[in-house]
Amino acid sequence: MLLPNLQFLLSFPGNNTDGMVVAGIAIIIGLIALAIGLIIAIFFCLTLQNLLKAIQKENRAMEPGMVWLILIPVFNIVWNFVVIINISKSIHAEYKSRNMEIEDKPLYTLGLVWAISSVCGFIPYLNYVAGIVSLISFIMYWIKANEYKNTIRQFPAAAMNEIGQ
Asked: Which one, of 141, 164, 144, 157, lies nearest residue 54 by Cα?
C-alpha cells in the first residue's frame, strides 16, 4: 500500500521528478569531489608535516603539527601564506646549518604563486586562469616540498656536520 501512495506523491502536478534526480546526482558528485579534495589535502599536509619533522628543531620556524590548520576553510586563505613563509625559512636554516648550498627563499616564490592564485580564484572571470595556475603551482609546490624532505632525510645532520669539518 505504501508504494502506490509514494507513486501518487511523485506524480503530483508540479512535482519535477527529473529535477530531483538531477539534484540528487549533483549532490552525490559534489560529496565525492569534496571527499577526494579532503584526501588530497590530508596527504599534502602529511608531506609538509614530514618535511618539518625532518628539519632539526632549532631550524624550524613552525611546529610540524601547525600545517594541519590548512584544513580549516576560510582560515586557510591566510594560513597558506604563514605556512609558505615558515617552511621556506625552515628549509633555508636547515640547509645552512648543514653547510649545504641553498637559494635564499626555497619554495617561497612557488608557494606565493600558489597562494595568490588560490585567492584570485574567488574573483569572477579571473578565476578561470587563476584556477589553472593554482592547480599547477600547488602540484609543483608539493613535489618540490617532497624533494626537499627526501634530500634532508637522505643526509642526516650529524653526517653533514662531519663532512663540513
From this structure: 157
Note down pLDDT in tens along the chain; length 165 residues: 445 555 554 555 556 677 788 888 999 999 999 999 999 999 999 999 999 999 999 999 999 999 999 999 999 999 999 999 999 999 999 999 999 999 999 999 999 999 999 999 999 999 999 999 999 999 999 999 999 999 999 987 655 555 544
User: 50 and 149 in contact (C-beta within 8 Å)?
Assistant: yes
The domain ranges of the chain are 17-164
Check if the beta carbon of residue 107 is closer than 8 Å to that of residue 141. Answer: yes
DSSP state of 49: H
What is the spatial distance between Cα 114 and Cα 133, in angstroms, rounded to a whole number? 7
pTM over 0.85: no
**Is the C-alpha dihedral spanning 93, 144, 100, 102 positive or negative?**
negative
Q: 88 near 106, Cβ under 8 Å?
A: yes
Whether the Cβ atoms of residue 99 and residue 164 lie closer than 8 Å to each other: yes
Instruction: Say how many C-beta atoms besides its own lie within 10 A of residue 23's C-beta.
Output: 11
